[in-house]
From TrEMBL:
<feature type="transmembrane region" description="Helical">
    <location>
        <begin position="115"/>
        <end position="141"/>
    </location>
</feature>
<feature type="transmembrane region" description="Helical">
    <location>
        <begin position="161"/>
        <end position="184"/>
    </location>
</feature>
<keyword id="KW-0812">Transmembrane</keyword>
<keyword id="KW-0472">Membrane</keyword>
<keyword id="KW-1133">Transmembrane helix</keyword>
<feature type="transmembrane region" description="Helical">
    <location>
        <begin position="21"/>
        <end position="43"/>
    </location>
</feature>
<feature type="transmembrane region" description="Helical">
    <location>
        <begin position="69"/>
        <end position="89"/>
    </location>
</feature>
<protein>
    <recommendedName>
        <fullName>PGG domain-containing protein</fullName>
    </recommendedName>
</protein>
């Protein structure tokens, strides 16, 4: 076996490994979010023992509970979409790597269209962003069900709970989208 040929394939093997690691990370994060959403769907929003609302005017209506369930389902669907695309890309990379095992010179060289890979990564990112957005909307409804409507006269606790959620999550999503687009252009 010629050592020059093995070194020639080194960057390709490293590149494939980086993609596989990134896809594993996306799958792990999406799995955790899907678990959180699934547990959120198991929670009963009409159980009076879980509410901290004192004022009758601050009780949210059934629309808030309906929106809570809808946003959880939308979030779950978005994370599931993202995870399925990530799994598909990961399998495509692994299959293309294993198809080249017979050729000693091309061991670990994955043959996959970069445009296809990039579109898949954008789809994964879009699914994760939409999943996080719907999850934030669901959490806002959880806060309203536990602490009272946002437009209630004494809604200080509700607003205090929502402000960090509305600032930090979109801020992190902007950073995430910028980094994905940066990686996409390289």
């Amino acid at each position: 076996m010629n050592m020059e040929m093995v070194r020639e394939n080194e960057p390709i093997r490293k590149l494939t490994s980086i993609y596989l690691t990134a896809l594993d990370g996306a799958l792990n994060v999406n799995s955790l979010f899907m678990l959180a959403v699934f547990l959120g769907l198991a929670w009963n929003p009409f159980d009076p023992n879980y509410s901290l609302i004192d004022d009758e005017r601050c009780f949210p209506g059934p629309k808030v509970a309906e929106d809570l369930i809808s946003f959880h389902v939308f979030s779950f669907a978005s994370f599931l979409f993202s995870s399925l695309i990530a799994l598909s890309l990961k399998q495509a990379l692994k299959i293309s790597r294993s198809n080249n095992r017979g050729d000693v010179m091309r061991v670990m060289k994955a043959r996959i269209d970069k445009t296809f890979l990039r579109v898949g990564i954008l789809a994964i990112s879009a699914g994760s962003v939409f999943g996080c957005g719907f999850l934030v909307l669901a959490m806002i409804n959880v806060v309203q069900l536990k602490l009272g409507k946002l437009n209630c006269p004494n809604s200080n606790y509700s607003i205090s709970a929502i402000v960090p959620l509305v600032i930090f999550v979109p801020g992190a999503l902007v950073i995430y989208v910028c980094l994905v687009l940066y990686a996409f252009t390289r």
